[in-house]
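Q: Could you fold this chain for me?
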Amino acid sequence: AADAYYAIAKSHPKHELAAQALYNTAFVSLEQKQYGEAERVAKIFQQYFPKDELIADIRQVAAEAAVQLKDYAGGESTYRELITTYAEHPHQERWQVRLALTLYLQDRPREALITLRGLVPRLSDPPQIAEAHFISGLSQYRLKDYESAQDRLLAAIATTPDWPQLDECWLYLSRCQHESGKTDDAIRSVRE
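A: Sure. Below is the predicted structure, expressed as structure tokens.
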């Protein structure tokens, strides 16, 4: 599908739907885990359609592609720019959660926690709530605050039973319990 969208945009660069076709190319590439291609197409989009109504959305694709390519500083920079430039965008809270992830991944857990402070009560999407709790838990774990980390990880687990990172939550919960001297709880958590 990504190739077909790209062919349309390339064949008809002046057509009113060219920007949409390029966006679709980048988005489908991201969904298909072709992160380098998503990033490449996002750059092309930004070069040729800098004022298009989809510019914030393509920047989000670029930010996520950067994160998946382990360019955490690049992802951080793009998410910060999105948060600042598009304050009224409906994905504002999602961007803040993802910004916190980039900070955690750059070994800046205190900054991740500051970014998430006060955000969870404003979130309405269960997977985003779970992710925010998870990032908080990981950050507190990294800071060796095992009790607080357990609370956040349990909150992530309780938020949504089918969240894709649930296994990681249980794993880190058991690590926190082990570090807190709760070996029996840690064993139970690993079995979940």
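A (continued): The two ends are 38 Å apart (CA to CA).
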